[in-house]
Specification:
0% strand; mainly alpha; 3 helices
Length: 100
């Protein structure tokens, strides 16, 4: 007959929290401007997307300012909406009907 076993507790390894590193440190009176392209590119991915707040380490207020500045710079054609390389690899013939 099987002996009664006590339930085992599963132990998780100690998770060490990574220190969030800020991409850029803003001073109190510093303003985010849409003409400062070098600064705005730090908050964009290589694909042209705006990086999330958890990645950049900004406060919610600064993240909104940066997002609005990036959108204004895109509208003024100072920043691209997408990456320069168009299309995904292996899907270049997506629109053609010859392969049907």
């Amino acid at each position: 007959m099987a002996s009664p076993r006590s339930p085992r507790k599963r132990r998780r390894p100690e998770l060490t929290a990574k220190q969030k590193r800020a991409v850029y440190r803003f001073s109190e009176e510093e303003v985010v401007h849409y003409k400062d392209i070098a600064l705005l590119r730090k908050f964009m991915s290589d694909r042209g997307k705006i990086r999330a707040r958890r990645v950049t380490g900004l406060t919610p207020k600064r993240q909104r300012e940066v997002a609005m500045a990036i959108k204004n710079a895109r509208e003024m054609a100072l920043l691209p909406y997408t990456a320069y390389k168009s299309g995904a690899p292996g899907r270049s013939d997506r629109g053609s009907r010859s392969n049907r």
